[in-house]
Specification:
alpha/beta; two-stranded parallel ribbon; 8 helices
């Protein structure tokens, strides 16, 4: 089967959804630019993608390093699809969220996304349109947590809401440049990050399935790709409740682990 995108860049590709997305995009003729902070795990992802016929160019770096990210992205050549996937998660552990933790979550989940998406947009703006008439696509990985201000994970919910709204708002103007923006809002995905959760995770899905749904949504041109629908509806319903009701409900649930 012919690949939908020939030149793909993915951050946070060393595990979880990022690795699943990389493997799902891998095919003969595809060039994958993959980043992560763990060199050994990133190489495992690269080898798995090479086994599927893709050319892989891994790069060990931190999305919070703006200069390094800009250098990597602008030096990658043509980019048809960029997925700003790198992110971290932590909660309060039942107490006040530590200031250092909140700052780190915002730095990775918001600034890291901007360090990925902004250079990518400038690269794409200078490209000629592809067969689909677009110069490129940029997808940011948010979460269904963007739809509800959960007291147990204030920084995480806020950061995911920020990048989701930013991508969706920017899509309208970027279309004029021949570029599409997408907000990916998964529910619970079975990854090392969610393995620490001590609370029920309804409709938990494998990373491979999440990657399939993500890429299918991108192929259909959806600005917001939220799944699975029951989790999305639950999150939106919880987000619509009066704040005092929501606080009372979440106070009866196990708190999300407070360690990043």
């Amino acid at each position: 089967m012919q690949a939908l995108w020939q030149n793909v860049l993915i951050t946070g590709a060393s595990s979880g959804l990022g690795r699943a997305l990389a493997e799902a995009c891998a095919a003969p003729g595809v060039v994958l630019h993959l980043s992560g902070r763990d060199a050994a795990r990133l190489e495992e992802t690269a080898n798995a993608c090479r086994a599927r016929g893709a050319e892989v160019r891994p790069c060990v770096l931190d999305v919070c390093d703006a200069a390094a990210m800009a250098g990597w992205i602008t030096g990658a050549g043509r980019l048809d699809l960029v997925i700003a996937n790198a992110g971290i998660s932590a909660g309060t552990g039942g107490v006040t969220e530590p200031a250092a933790q909140a700052r780190r979550i915002f730095e990775v989940n918001v600034t890291g996304v901007l360090n990925t998406a902004l250079p990518a947009l400038e690269v794409m703006a200078a490209q000629t349109p592809g067969a689909d008439g677009l110069r490129g696509r940029v997808a940011v990985v948010a979460s269904v947590a963007a739809f509800v201000a959960a007291p147990g994970a204030p920084a995480y919910c806020a950061t995911k809401a920020a990048v989701q709204r930013w991508a969706e708002a920017l899509d309208a103007t970027e279309r004029a440049r021949g570029i599409r923006m997408h907000a990916i809002c998964p529910g619970y995905v079975r990854t090392p990050m969610t393995a620490r959760n001590k609370f029920p995770m309804p409709f938990l899905m494998d990373a491979d399935e999440a990657a399939r749904r993500t890429l299918a949504g991108l192929a259909r041109g959806k600005t917001r790709i939220a799944y699975p629908w029951p989790t999305t509806m639950l999150a939106r319903f919880a987000g619509s409740l009066p704040i005092s009701w929501r606080a009372a409900i979440f106070s009866r649930l196990p708190a999300k682990d407070g360690n990043i």
